[in-house]
TrEMBL record:
Residues covered by the FtsK domain: 234-413
Protein name in UniProt: Cell division protein FtsK
The entry's keywords: ATP-binding, Cell cycle, Cell division, Membrane, Nucleotide-binding, Transmembrane, Transmembrane helix
Residues reported to bind ATP: 250-257
Keyword Nucleotide-binding: yes
Record keyword Transferase present: no
Pfam families cross-referenced by the UniProt entry: FtsK_SpoIIIE (PF01580)
Length: 479
C-alpha cells in the first residue's frame, strides 16, 4: 500500500464532511450512426429541390429559362435573351415605377436581407439575446418564416417556439435591434406562435415635417382624424379630438407646441365657419398668444384661466341637461359647436400655482371636463412637461396620450400605459435634435407607433390668422 505511486493522494480525513449529492439522472449521449445523418441530408436536399419552384418561382424560372436557351441557342442566344430581359425590366421600371418597385425591387431586397442579415445572424443574435430555449439539452430558436420589405422597414415573420410568448421578444427589442443593425425593433402579434418583427431600415422622421395643408372646406375637417404629422411608416398621423381628450407630455423643447398648433391648423376652416370653437389657456403667454384671433376665448393669467375652465364646465352642464333624454351623441353645429379647450402647461394651474384655491378650482374643473365632456362635444387638449403623479394626478382622465421626449425611462409607462416601454416606446431615448418626435398608441393597435408632428411656424400661424381669424373689432366670447 505504501509503495503505490499515488499513495495518500486520495486520503480523506475521517472527520471531513462528505458533500451530499442528490442522485442525478442524465440522458445518455449516444453517437448518431452516420447512415442516419446521410438520410437526413438527402431528405433536406430533396425537400429544397422540390420546394424551390414554390419558394423562389422567379429565380427558378430564370435559371431554367437560361439553361434551355443555352441548350438550344448557345451563348449568343443566351446573351441576346439577357439583353432583352434587362431592356424589358428597364422599360417596366420607367413606365410603371411604383409597380416595379413593389414587385421587383422590394422582393429582391427582401431576399437579400433574408440571406445576408437575418439568416446569417439569426442564431448568434438570438442565443446571445437569451431567446434560445433549452429542452433535453438541445437549443430551440424561433424560426424565420418569411422576410418582406416595405419602403422603410424589414418585416421578419417568425414562428415562436412552443411554450414561449411574444412578450419574450418584446422584452428583448433593444438586443434584437442592435443585433440586426436596426434603429429599433417592434413586435406585432399575428396569431398563435405567429409574430412579425419590424426593423426600420431608415428613419422617415429624421427631417422636420412642414405644416400640413389646411382643408379647403369646413366639411373636409374630420374631427375624429385630424392630420397632424407623419407616422414612422410614412403614413399621415391622424389625431382624434371629437369624443376624447388628449394629453401631450414632453420635456421643455420637445415640441409640444407643434402638436397643439398642428391640431388647431387642421381645424381652421371649421373654426372660421363656427362649428368648432377653441378656448385657449396660455400661462406662458408665448405659445398660443400669436394666434389669439383664432380663439373664441383666451386666458393667460391664473384667475382668467380658471374662470375659462369653469365657464367650459358650465357650458358642458347646460348642454348635458338640454341633451338629456333627446340626444346621446354630439354633432357639431354653429349653435352647438365642438369646444376644444387648449391648455398649455396644465401643471401651472394644477400643481405649480402658489394659490391653493386656484389649484383646487382648476383641478376640479379639468377633472369634470375630462370625465363628462366627451359626449357633449367638449374636448381638452392639454400639454404637460412632467407626468409624475405629484404634478399631474389627473393624467389618467385623458384617454389619449402622446409621449414626446421624456426625462426618464419610468415616465414612458406613466404616459402610454404599463407595457409601452417593453413594446419599444423609448421616448426617453429620443434625440433632442428631433423635436416633435414621439410615441402614440393608435386606435386598434396596442403597439406604440413613432410619429413626428408637423411644424407650424410663426409665418404659418400668421397666414392662418389672416385667412381665418376674427376681425380685430369682433370681441372674444364672454370677453
Ligand atoms: N414638429 C417639429 N419639427 C421640427 N422642429 C420643431 C417641431 N416642434 C418644435 N420644433 C422646434 O423645437 C423648438 C421647441 O419647440 P416647442 O416650443 O414647441 O417645445 P415645447 O415642448 O412646447 O417647449 P416648452 O414646454 O418649453 O414650451 C421650436 O422652437 C422649434 O424650433
Amino acid at each position: 500500500m505504501f509503495t503505490a505511486r499515488n499513495a495518500g493522494a486520495t486520503q480523506v480525513q475521517p472527520t471531513t464532511p462528505v458533500p451530499a449529492h442528490a442522485i442525478r439522472f442524465t440522458t445518455p449521449v449516444m453517437p448518431t450512426p452516420a447512415v442516419f445523418l446521410l438520410i437526413r441530408w438527402v431528405y433536406r436536399l430533396v425537400r429544397l429541390v422540390v420546394l424551390a419552384p414554390l419558394r423562389f418561382p422567379v429565380g427558378v424560372s430564370t435559371l431554367l429559362g437560361s439553361v434551355v436557351t443555352l441548350h438550344y441557342l448557345g451563348w449568343v442566344g443566351l446573351a441576346l435573351g439577357g439583353v432583352l430581359a434587362v431592356s424589358g425590366l428597364g422599360l417596366w421600371a420607367w413606365r410603371w415605377p411604383r409597380v416595379f418597385h413593389c414587385l421587383v425591387v422590394l422582393r429582391v431586397l427582401a431576399t437579400w436581407r433574408w440571406v445576408w442579415v437575418y439568416r446569417r445572424h439569426w442564431q448568434p443574435v438570438l442565443v446571445i439575446a437569451g431567446l434560445a430555449e433549452s429542452y433535453q439539452e438541445r437549443h430551440h430558436l424561433p424560426r424565420i418564416r418569411a422576410v418582406t420589405c416595405t419602403d422603410w422597414a424589414d418585416r421578419v415573420r417568425v414562428r415562436l417556439v412552443a411554450g414561449t410568448a411574444p412578450a419574450d421578444l418584446e422584452h428583448r427589442v433593444s438586443e434584437l435591434a442592435h443585433g440586426f443593425g436596426a434603429p429599433s425593433c417592434r413586435v406585432r402579434v399575428r396569431g398563435p406562435r405567429d409574430v412579425v418583427l419590424e426593423f426600420p431600415r431608415r428613419d422617415l422622421l429624421a427631417h422636420p415635417v412642414g405644416a400640413l395643408p389646411v382643408p379647403d372646406h369646413p366639411q373636409d375637417v374630420d374631427l375624429a382624424a385630424l392630420p397632424v404629422g407623419r407616422c414612422e411608416d410614412g403614413q399621415e398621423w391622424r389625431l382624434r379630438l371629437h369624443g376624447t381628450h388628449v394629453l401631450t407630455v414632453g420635456v421643455t423643447g420637445s415640441g409640444k407646441g407643434s402638436v397643439l398648433w398642428s391640431a388647431i391648423r387642421a381645424m381652421t376652416p371649421a373654426i372660421a365657419h363656427g362649428t368648432v370653437r377653441v378656448w385657449a389657456i396660455d400661462p406662458k403667454r408665448m405659445e398660443l398668444s400669436y394666434g389669439r384671433a383664432l380663439f373664441a376665448r383666451y386666458a393667460d393669467s391664473a384667475e382668467t384661466a380658471v374662470a375659462l375652465l369653469e365657464a367650459a364646465v358650465g357650458e358642458m352642464r347646460q348642454r348635458a341637461s338640454r341633451y338629456a333624454g333627446h340626444q346621446r351623441v354630439h354633432t357639431p353645429t354653429t349653435d352647438d359647436p365642438f369646444i376644444v379647450v387648449v391648455l398649455d402647461e396644465v401643471a401651472f394651474l394644477s400643481a405649480y400655482h402658489p394659490d391653493r384655491d386656484i389649484r383646487r378650482r382648476a383641478e376640479n374643473a379639468i377633472a369634470t371636463l375630462t370625465s363628462q365632456g366627451r359626449s357633449v362635444g367638449v374636448c381638452v387638449l392639454a400639454a404637460l412637461q412632467d407626468p409624475r403623479k405629484e404634478v399631474m394626478n389627473l393624467r389618467n382622465l385623458f384617454p389619449d396620450k402622446i409621449a414626446l421626449r421624456l426625462d426618464e425611462a419610468s415616465q414612458v409607462d406613466m404616459v402610454l400605459g404599463e407595457d409601452a416601454r417593453d413594446r419599444g416606446a423609448n421616448a426617453h431615448l429620443i434625440d433632442p435634435e428631433v423635436p416633435g418626435v414621439g410615441f402614440v398608441r393608435l386606435e386598434g393597435s396596442p403597439a406604440p407607433v413613432r410619429v413626428r408632428s408637423a411644424y407650424v411656424t410663426d409665418d404659418d400661424i400668421a397666414t392662418m390668422v389672416d385667412g381665418y381669424g376674427r376681425s380685430p373689432s369682433s370681441p372674444e366670447e364672454g370677453g
